[in-house]
Amino acid sequence: MAISVKNISKIYGKQKALDNVSFEIRTGDVVGFLGPNGAGKSTMMKIITGFIPQSSGEVYVNGNNVTEKSLLVRREIGYLPENNPLYLDMYVKEYLKFVAGLYDLENAKARVEEMIKKTGLTVEQHKKIGALSKGYRQRVGLAQALIHDPKVLILDEPTSGLDPNQIVEIRNLISEIGKEKTVMLSTHIMQEVEAICDKIIIINKGMIVADDTTKHIQESLSAAEQQVTVEFDSMPDINEIKKLPGVSKIISHKENTVVLESKGDADIRPIIFNYAVEKKLTVLSLQKQEKSLEKVFQELTK
Ligand code: ADP
Ligand code: MG
């Protein structure tokens, strides 16, 4: 196992940020660590990388206890922190040389050149980090994380704040890197993990709520239903509504109000509005109760 997390809890003051979290990541896998904001993703990653101590439990990286062998573990891990705090006044190359120096790399100069090439920084290498776009700063962050050729990469929201083109570029870069390394990356975006990960671990409110292959989790998410409550100005024909595309079930109807269920990704609202227009009905109100990711998470683990 590249990473074994065993019964980790983390308490900040009175708040339990991680509650008895356990999971394993196999060597060579690319794993998405998915969860809403505040779920505990960054906290878990900081504990795996040895940046902050856990309150209880143990983490092993390549079989080494992170607390007991922190120096060794840090050499085996590359870490891209959230909001990667880069030295904005340093030049790209200068910064990477500085990082290489921290690891005492013998072939520092060659490694820096290699990382610049690998992360697509050749054209920007002589610029100050502060002068780079967010996408290029993220590349510098990846170069920094990779410079000592770690076996395991921990990337905390590597695409957050990037524009769509940059997101695709960074994703491709991570996929490329993932061919040779174990990667754990966090995100709050489902599509992100769909695009690059073999496995997904979902965390919610400090607890693991799913840990499965991407394929299995996709299947359960796409089957998720949404509930829509529609109030018309007069009674609609329930049998007609039942047959509208996307409507999977009428949950209840009372006078002019219908509560229905729809399945899949499609937005049912325009269908309802078009139906109303056709039947000369007026929609007085329409409310869609999205199954929050949180709810889906709960269902996944029920
Ligand atoms: P995520 O990365 O999933 O958004 P975090 O790990 O950053 O979540 O945070 C998990 C919870 O712990 C949040 O409620 C957050 O407010 C809290 N938290 C994180 N860091 C600290 C800290 N240094 N002190 C107190 N609370 C914190
Ligand atoms: Mg975070």
Overview of this protein structure:
The structure is a single chain. With 302 residues, this protein is an alpha/beta fold. The chain has 2 domains: 3-214, P-loop containing nucleotide triphosphate hydrolases (Rossmann fold, 3-Layer(aba) Sandwich), CATH 3.40.50; 223-301, Alpha-Beta Plaits, CATH 3.30.70. 35% of the residues lie in helices and 30% in strands. It contains 11 helices and 14 strands. The chain has helices at 41-48, 70-76, 92-102, 108-118, 134-146, 164-178, 190-196, 214-222, 238-242, 269-278, 293-301; strands at 3-12, 15-25, 30-34, 56-61, 64-65, 77-80, 152-156, 182-187, 199-204, 207-213, 225-232, 247-254, 257-263, 283-289. A 6-stranded mixed beta sheet has the order 6-7-8-3-9-10, sandwiched between helices. A 4-stranded antiparallel beta sheet has the order 2-1-4-5, covered by helices on one side. Strand 1 and strand 2 form a beta hairpin. The longest helix has 15 residues, at 164-178. It is elongated, with a radius of gyration of 24 Å. The mean pLDDT is 90. The structure holds adenosine-5'-diphosphate and magnesium ion (MG). Residues 12, 15, 17, 35, 37-43 line the site of adenosine-5'-diphosphate.
